[in-house]
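This section describes the prediction task in plain terms. A model, or a person checking by hand, is given the sequence of a single protein chain and must write out its three-dimensional structure as a string of tokens. No templates, partner chains or ligands are provided. The sample shown here is typical of the held-out split.
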Amino acid sequence: MFKKILIANRGEIALRVIRTCKEMGIKTVAVYSKADKDSLHVRFADEAVCIGPAPSKQSYLDIPSIIAAAEITNADAIHPGYGFLAENSKFAKICTEHDIKFIGPTADMIDKMGDKATAKQTMRGAGVPTIPGSDGILEDFSEAKMLALEMGFPVILKATAGGGGKGMRVVWRIEDLEHAWDAAKQESGAAFGNDGLYIEKYIEEPKHIEIQIIGDQYGNASHLSERDCSIQRRHQKLIEETPSPIMTNELREKMGDAAVAAAKAISYEGVGTIEFLVDKHLNFYFMEMNTRIQVEHPITEEVIHFDLIREQIKVAAGVNISGRNYYPEMHAIECRINAEDPYHNFRPSPGKITTFHSPGGHGIRVDTHAYAGYLIPPNYDSMIAKLIAVARTREEAIAKMLRALDEFVIEGVDTTIPIHKAILQDDRFRFGEYTTKFMEEFVFKKP
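The expected answer:
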């Protein structure tokens, strides 16, 4: 087992990893930018190293500074959390070259699944259902036009190196295809330095359901059931839950088997998710793979009594997994609490938190790095807390979450708490009749 782990991240996920490391008797090293000197992950780590100024490129994305911090503190492993360098194959490779264990998949695995076109080809080879579309990156517009006419509209153009909705365009008519092509290429080139596009059939009324998987260094893999991530705004998740309201035992087995087959196809090591779109007829299609721990991992932990960070560390240390699949015993919902103003198009709201009262009680979990007096920097993602409610049934979980949202008091900055309350009281959510289009149709007004 590792003696000391450096966490190459910030905020609540860094604190989350530190907690499990302490329980395992592993020393921890926090890295932080000057903007994060007062963050709780810095306070609770055994050691802390400042790696640069506030901008991410000069701190949390600065690979030489992070490697230097690991070397001067004698860390024998690095946990990347999510975001930043978590899916950076170059970083994983450099860690290996410096005899530091990267807690996650190998650089080769990240490359295979990080490029969406390559991932799709790999999944087809493993027998995993995929959305009809191009076999790889499109050569030119004429190829895109030919495939679009073959598949029929609507279609969707996607950046092969994309994420967060960048370089993505839905096209409903042939007359709009060329304009969408030009816009998607320009946006993806600016955002990722790679303007490669591929095309797929656009799935109408879709649900976004991911399967949590784990694989070890010996070719074993298993799944830990599903999470429904369909409540999204501009492809950014707002609320997640498990089990999914639409899930049947038969569908869970099929999707779980497909996810395990996907993991075994690349001999996957670590935790990750296989992301699927599920249509209104319960047909499912591979969308992408995330080769890291997910923001929403706590709801899986709560319904199967399983510490995913602990298992992630154990796998990286060479421990075999059991190979058994896990199924939800409870119902859990997560609300992402962001420092944003939902009444003004989710405008970021950095600044000083003057009051912070965290909810509690049976079945409530709060993962956060915030506190009264904490100054939220404007440089990073605006999420300041994850609120998780767990109960025996979905109805009880919703009621528990609404009670906890009422108790959650954050003053000094705007937060998304009001819109979470409104969503949970919407009939479409309460009856589980929602798709990824929910937020496009949701009307939210200031009381």
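For orientation: The chain has a mean pLDDT of 95.
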